[in-house]
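A.,

Following up on our hallway conversation. Structure tokens first:
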């Protein structure tokens, strides 16, 4: 298998991860007590650098940051999948940086979240690591 294929698979998984994250991170259905927590997050306002914000604003904002990062990582993975092995061998900071970043995300997913993000993270990390290994062999 080629690094190109692993990068393209990672890109598709990243888009699916981004969609699932975006749809799911604000859902409370089936979570006992979650609605009351969200209600408090929305009701407590404070001023930060001259702007009135609620804790829920930070929650949503950081959740959407994650979506933006996942989509950027998908685009980057797709682009890396179209680069020759010779060029990829000259970009170890990008190829291995992306793989190591997703290793950290895998650890965080299993530590703080649940099965779905954990599985997506493992699969993405495996693809990016395999791609980085293959990319270094020119």
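Then the amino acids I'd put at each of the 138 positions:
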């Amino acid at each position: 298998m080629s690094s190109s294929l692993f990068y393209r698979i990672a890109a598709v998984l990243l888009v699916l991860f981004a969609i699932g994250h975006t749809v799911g991170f604000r859902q409370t259905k089936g979570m006992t007590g979650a609605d009351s927590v969200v209600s408090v997050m929305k009701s407590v306002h404070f001023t930060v650098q001259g702007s009135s914000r609620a804790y829920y604003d930070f929650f949503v904002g950081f959740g959407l940051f994650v979506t933006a990062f996942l989509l950027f990582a998908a685009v980057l993975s797709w682009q890396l999948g179209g680069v020759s092995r010779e060029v990829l061998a000259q970009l170890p900071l990008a190829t291995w940086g992306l793989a190591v970043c997703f290793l950290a995300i895998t650890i965080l997913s299993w530590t703080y979240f649940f099965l779905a993000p954990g599985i997506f993270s493992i699969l993405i990390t495996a693809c990016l690591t395999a791609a980085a290994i293959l990319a270094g062999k020119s």
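The two ends are 14 Å apart (CA to CA). Curious whether your intuition agrees with the design.

B.
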